[in-house]
Structure formats: structure tokens, C-alpha cells
Design a protein that fits this description.
nine-stranded parallel beta sheet, TIM Barrel, Glyco_hydro_39, ten-stranded mixed beta sheet, alpha/beta, Immunoglobulin-like, hydrolase activity, hydrolyzing O-glycosyl compounds, Glycosyl_Hydrolase_39, hydrolase, GH
Length: 565
């Protein structure tokens, strides 16, 4: 090499090393979450404080009672609970996708025999905890079914789903006896719990009558609704009655059923009174996502769930006299079968860890925007997840706890429970909004966004790092920038769900995934299942109403930043 060229090459090499070094050391630009506490919106309704499950007899079992106590305690408002099979004939023994109360039988002469013992035990468990039932009037007692045999199914997580639809799914052979059963149940409830308490409940008819849960026709369901609503209102004229709890309205059959029901409410001929229409105090339908395996990785589909929600809102909004009625999304989940375990359904391998938690945070936050865009009155969205008694640890059911140990997803609801007051404005230049997710789901860049609220003495900001693909992905630098804080000094508490915090599943795996944890291990798992602080609470100074809170948020992580003054 010529001697004159050496300095040039050296300079070039040093320049390249300098550039390469700056590239390797460069940090991703922080994602700014700008929260303006001076720009308040509508009240932040506790739409998350609604839960449900198939197996009503788990309610009063050991882990069921423990979990209900935890759900009740995380909320500052009464939590509503919806359970199937409250009128099913049987001995009250719990099984997967099965429950019974034996509320109605008949003597040898065909006379009704009412026994509210088990129903009362279920509802007592709720009321003792300050919870309230969504009293689902279902399913058909054996003595009233038009096709009673076979009646009880024997179902396991690996069985065909259609095997569960047996004699309890059929119309009544005597609509007047059915009506009297409903009347007696409501009257009994008023006598036991008081009129004011029962007036605060929601009474509904059946579950998903557009599929196998109802073996009658659309017309027969509508007839049953007329008889049921008439009985409820005769027993307690101020009771709240609703339906039809159809599956996702995005499906053509479901939408057709939904509209037929709504048309009847508005202009149909009532089967009992002969008058026009039927009473309806709230509207219900379901909305589910659709995960699948892609190259061995679970890929969620939040977009499918959002399209169902949006279609349901659109249908309700199309009836001028009904569009302002409260809407309860009776089941609102990442997919459809809570009792279909991960070991037999690998597409459900999102449920034990942080994927379920981050999905829940991102999905619930957008339901507010979906309702606002359609101009409807969203009251609640039921998370169809509870617990499955005496099952293997972390088997991968869609549940909130396993063997009495809380899973990460329950901590999202603990975060929601701390959010009070009115929604406040957050910057809209982030990667996703409800419309984009409705159209595309979250398949490109990660969804890093927030929901914020403020009341007179505090503010809360919920931040999540979500993607449909069940891979953790990179950590994200986040800068929460608050303005309009009405104080000069605030106490900041930062709660976190990720691989290290508020995560019993990761602790269980580090133990070696024990099939029978020791008492000491169970205690450690219970502690890990609680919502944990990322850092110690700290008093921070506020300058001109502004405060910056930077932090790193891992993939599938959820943070709640709470300010108190």
C-alpha cells in the first residue's frame, strides 16, 4: 500500500468504527404515552367487573369460594357473575361443562316439586361477597324436556363439543309449567334476598340459542322468551329481563337469529299476552377471538372478536327504540371453549402466562371505543373464565386460577379495579386504534398503548405491550408523559405483570413444574400470583403540572402507574 494512502485508510476505518459503534449503542426511540389529565371524557365504566362459567357447582367448592372472594375484593363496585345450568336436573355434583341444581322435579302425578337448596347455595355465595348474579334462566329440567333422554352428558376436554347437547337443551313440553317455574324462582328470590336486592340483578333466558344449546327453532325460543319474561315481570314488575345471548353476531346465522329476536321485541305478537312486543331491559350477545397454530406458535386473533362486538353494536343501534338499552357482552374472550385444555388443544397454549394478560388489557381498553363509535350503551363484558376444581396444575384451561393459585390474567383485573373516575385523553399517534385492530388484528408492529383515568385525588395509566404472536418479542422503552396534574407532589406506585412479576406460572416452571407442589411451594406460588409492585412507591415532584415516568416494558408486559395526591 502506498504510504500516502495509509492515513486515509486509517481515517476511513476509524470513521466506520465510530458509525458502527453508534449504531450498536443506539437505543430505540421511547414510545411516548402522552396523558392529558385536563381533557376528561366519559366515566370509565367497570365493564370488566363481570365473570362467568359453565359449572355452577364449582361456586361453593373450596377453590371456587376462594377465587370468588378474590374477584370481589379487587373491585370497588359489585361484581356480576353469570353461570349456566341453574335449572338443570341432577345431584349437584360438578363436572366439566356440567352443573345441576335439581330445582324442578315432578311427583308421580306430574305435579311440580320445587327445591331451591342448591340454587340458594350458589346465590348465597355471591351475595355474601357483595356480588350479584346475572340469573340465567336455563336449562330445561328433565321432567319438562320434550326429549329428556339422554339427559346428563359425560364430556371430557378431548371429546366432541356437540356431545354435550342432550335433553336439557330442548324446549318445554308445557310452557305454562315452565312459566310457573320461573315465577316461583323469582318470587322465592325476593322472599330470600329482598326486593331491592333482586331488582339489582339481571335475569336472562338461556345461552347461545342459535347453536346446539337450544334444540328448538327460533320461533320456539321467542315463544319461550315471552313466557319467561311474563313470569319474571309478574313476580317482580321492576325486575330486569334480557336476552338473547347469541353467539358472535359476525356470523350470518347468529345475526339472523339476533335480528329475529329484536324484531319480535319491537313488533312481534306476544305469545302470552297477544299484544305487540315483549319486555326487554338489556341486550346480550357473545364475542370471541380465534387463536390458531402458525408454524408451531400460537397466533391470537383479536380482530375476529372486535368484529363480532362491532356487529352486535351495529345491530342494536339499528333499532331506534332499543339502541340506548344497556348491552352486556355475555361472553367476551380470546376463544370459545374454557374447558378445552391446552394439552389437548395446543392452540390454547396462551392461557397460563402473560399472553392472556396482555390480550385482556389491550382488548378491554378498546371495547369502550367500539361502543362509543356506535353510540351504544355498553354496561359490561363477561370474561368467561373461572376455575376448574381438582385439575392438574396449569393444565391450560381458560381460567383465572389453578388449584387456588391466581394466574397472571387475574392481575389485569386487579389493575382495572384500581382505575376510577373519568377516562382522559391519550395521544392518538400510536401504532393501533380500535379500528385498525378490528380490520387487521395485531400482526405488524407491536401494540403498545394505554388507557388512563382520573378522579379527584388520583390518576391511573394502564400500559400494555401486545402482539398476536405468542412470542415475547423485544423490550420496549416507554415514556409516560402526564400533564395537568393538580398537585405539586404525587405518590407514584408502579405495578407490573411480566415474566418476573405477578406471575405464578413462571415460578411454577422454575420449580420444575411439580405435579404435586409441597405446602411451601404452594405458599410461594400463591404469593407469586398476587399483583406486585415493580419498584417501591415514591414521592415525585411535579413541575407545572407535568411529570415524565420512563420505564422499559417487556413483550406481553402490562404496567399500571398510579398517581395519588
Amino acid at each position: 500500500m502506498p504510504s500516502f494512502a495509509k492515513p486515509f485508510v486509517t481515517l476511513l476505518l476509524l470513521s466506520w468504527l465510530s458509525i458502527a459503534g453508534s449504531i450498536s449503542l443506539a437505543q430505540p426511540k421511547p414510545i411516548e404515552i402522552r396523558v392529558d389529565l385536563t381533557k376528561t371524557k366519559e366515566p370509565l365504566k367497570p365493564i370488566w367487573a363481570w365473570f362467568g362459567y359453565d359449572e355452577p357447582n364449582y361456586t361453593y367448592m373450596k377453590d371456587g369460594k376462594k377465587l370468588l372472594s378474590e374477584i370481589a375484593s379487587l373491585s370497588q363496585v359489585p361484581v356480576f357473575v353469570r353461570a349456566h345450568s341453574l335449572l338443570v336436573t341432577g345431584d349437584g355434583k360438578a363436572a366439566l361443562k356440567w352443573g345441576s341444581t335439581n330445582a324442578y322435579t315432578e311427583d308421580k302425578n306430574g305435579n311440580p316439586v320445587y327445591d331451591w337448596t342448591i340454587v340458594d347455595r350458589i346465590f348465597d355465595t355471591y351475595i355474601e361477597r357483595g356480588m350479584k348474579p346475572i340469573a340465567q334462566i336455563s336449562f330445561m329440567p328433565e321432567a319438562l324436556s320434550t326429549k329428556p333422554e339422554p339427559y346428563k352428558h359425560n364430556w371430557g376436554p378431548g371429546n366432541q363439543y356437540n356431545n354435550i347437547f342432550t335433553g336439557w337443551a330442548y324446549p318445554p313440553k308445557d310452557y305454562k309449567k315452565w312459566s310457573e317455574l320461573v315465577y316461583q324462582w323469582v318470587k322465592h328470590s325476593v322472599a330470600r334476598y329482598g326486593q331491592k336486592e333482586v331488582e339489582s340483578w339481571y335475569w336472562e333466558l338461556w345461552n347461545e340459542p342459535n347453536i346446539g344449546y337450544w334444540k328448538g327453532t327460533v320461533e320456539e325460543y321467542i315463544k319461550l322468551y315471552d313466557y319467561t319474561a311474563d313470569a319474571v315481570k309478574r313476580a317482580l314488575p321492576t325486575a330486569k329481563m334480557g336476552g338473547p345471548e347469541v353467539t358472535g353476531p359476525g356470523g350470518e346465522g347468529s345475526a339472523k337469529f339476533f335480528r329475529a329476536f329484536m324484531d319480535h321485541i319491537v313488533s312481534g305478537t306476544n305469545a302470552v299476552t297477544g299484544k305487540t312486543g315483549a319486555p326487554l331491559d338489556f341486550v346480550t350477545f357473545h364475542a370471541k377471538g380465534a387463536p390458531k397454530l402458525v408454524n408451531g406458535v400460537v397466533q391470537m386473533n383479536m380482530g375476529t372478536q372486535f368484529r363480532d362486538i362491532d356487529k352486535g353494536f351495529e345491530i342494536v343501534a339499528s333499532y331506534p327504540t332499543l339502541k340506548n338499552l344497556p348491552i352486556i357482552i355475555g361472553e367476551s374472550d380470546p376463544e370459545g371453549c374454557a374447558a378445552c385444555s391446552e394439552d389437548l388443544h395446543p392452540e390454547n397454549a396462551y392461557r397460563n402466562g402473560t399472553m392472556y394478560a396482555s390480550y385482556t388489557a389491550a382488548a378491554f381498553a378498546r371495547k369502550y371505543d367500539l361502543a362509543k363509535a356506535r353510540g351504544v350503551n355498553l354496561l359490561g363484558a363477561v370474561t368467561w373464565a373461572f376455575e376448574f376444581e381438582d385439575q392438574p396444575w396449569f393444565r391450560g384451561f381458560r381460567d383465572l386460577a389453578t388449584n387456588g393459585v391466581d394466574k397472571p390474567v387475574l392481575n389485569v383485573f386487579r389493575m382495572f379495579g384500581m382505575m376510577q373516575g373519568n377516562r382522559v385523553e391519550i395521544n392518538t399517534d400510536l401504532a393501533y386504534d380500535f379500528n385498525k385492530i378490528k380490520k387487521e388484528s395485531v400482526r405488524g408492529e407491536r401494540d403498545i398503548n394505554a388507557l388512563a383515568a382520573k378522579d379527584s385525588k388520583s390518576a391511573t395509566v394502564l400500559v400494555w405491550n401486545y402482539h398476536d404472536d405468542n412470542v415475547l418479542g423485544p423490550n420496549a422503552p416507554v415514556d409516560v408523559r402526564l400533564k395537568g396534574i393538580p398537585a405539586q407532589r404525587v405518590l407514584v406506585q408502579h405495578y407490573r405483570i411480566d415474566q418476573q412479576f405477578s406471575n405464578s406460572y413462571e415460578v411454577w416452571k422454575k420449580m420444575g413444574s411439580p405435579k404435586s407442589p409441597t405446602a411451601e411451594q404452594v405458599a410461594e406460588l400463591e404469593k407469586a400470583g398476587q399483583l406486585q409492585l415493580l419498584t417501591s412507591p415514591a414521592w415525585l415532584n411535579v413541575k407545572n403540572g407535568d411529570l415524565h415516568i420512563p420505564f422499559t416494558l417487556p413483550g406481553q408486559g402490562v404496567s399500571l402507574v398510579k398517581l395519588t395526591w
